[in-house]
Amino acid sequence: MSSWQELEAKYFMHTFNRVPVTLVRGEGARVWDEDGKEYLDFVAGWAVDSLGHCHPVVSEAVAEQARTLIQTSNQFYTIPQLQLAELLVQNSCLDKVFFCNSGAEANEGAVKLARRYGKLKLNGAYEVITAMNSFHGRTLAMTAATGQAKFQDPYLPLPIGFKNVEYNNIEAIKAATTEQTCAVMLEPIEAEGGVNIPDDKYLAAVRDWCDQSGILLILDEIQTGVGRTGTLFAYEQSGIVPDIMSLAKGLGSGMPIAAFLAWDKASLFAPGEHGSTFAGNPVACAAGYATLKYILANDIAGSVKRVGSYFMARLEGLKQKFPFITDVRGRGLLMAMEFSHDIAQSVLMACLDKGLLVNRLKPQMLRFMPPLIIGNGEVDEALDILDKVLSSIDI
Ligand SMILES: Cc1ncc(COP(=O)(O)O)c(C=O)c1O
Fold this sequence. Notes:
By secondary structure, the protein is an alpha/beta fold. It has 13 helices and 15 strands.
């Protein structure tokens, strides 16, 4: 154990299951540990470093803003948040933005907005229908929204107002809808829950149901948004639009920033009804603005689609080769590999040894969420390592 890892053991609440590596530097799709060992990073800050580590446009924007104005209060106008708000609205289907500091906060805000809508337009309806195997964040309310017992059980009883129903099942949403329902909240792909991709018509059917019932559709695009799945937002691939959408992760290419957006008709907060000290912090927004401008100007989503297809073809090749791979799936650069046995942790550790960072999503499942700027070369490099590792696995 390095002395940094000893410090962690001594001073840190033990909530993170870390691998024994202390990272000290990053550039593009690569990171280096304290001993100078290089790794190809297919975790990317948990699907966060969209332009890779320390991309010059992001680092420059952050440095420049940090030299100029780091934080004011939202009593005042500041320019980076307005530039980012305009760019987000111009490139999405929605009209208004509220900035936050984390994905969980963005979803909290989205649900609060839906409750305002319920109070003002739906006779006080307040319940939000969410899906099993979803993940919406770690606050108490978002723990109630997250349909996974392992996150909920340690904190029971949970706040009221959420119903978790089966994903990819429109009948389950219909059955759960009552006059207390103000919204349905879903991920376009359940990312943390297993990279679960719903049937093509599911989101359209949910949209229709929400329209018929007069309730709102919230899409949690915290992991799927900002190019990750091969379009700027994943909803574009399902032919529907949400009423409210939450974003975080890739939006600031590593800087903590999140947002929720809504139609004008749903943007019903009155002054003082919602807020946050750091919301729209100038440095975070400068990073977000630089990231989004770069993604749009360089068609990064298009590149994600192309590289993602190549990635999927190579994953399929591994599946043909190794009978213990039971499934490979994903969209863009959000991919999963499932095994017949609980070998994900040993595969992860062997990849680490060979200089590749991957994510163990479940005991029998790996996830890949590299920076969006990678090309086929990095995919080859990663999958050649994985191929070698899988060849040495004894099942
Ligand atoms: C879809 C989704 N929603 C919400 C969150 C929570 O985001 P944060 O960890 O920034 O609070 C995550 C995090 O993994 C996520 O994947």
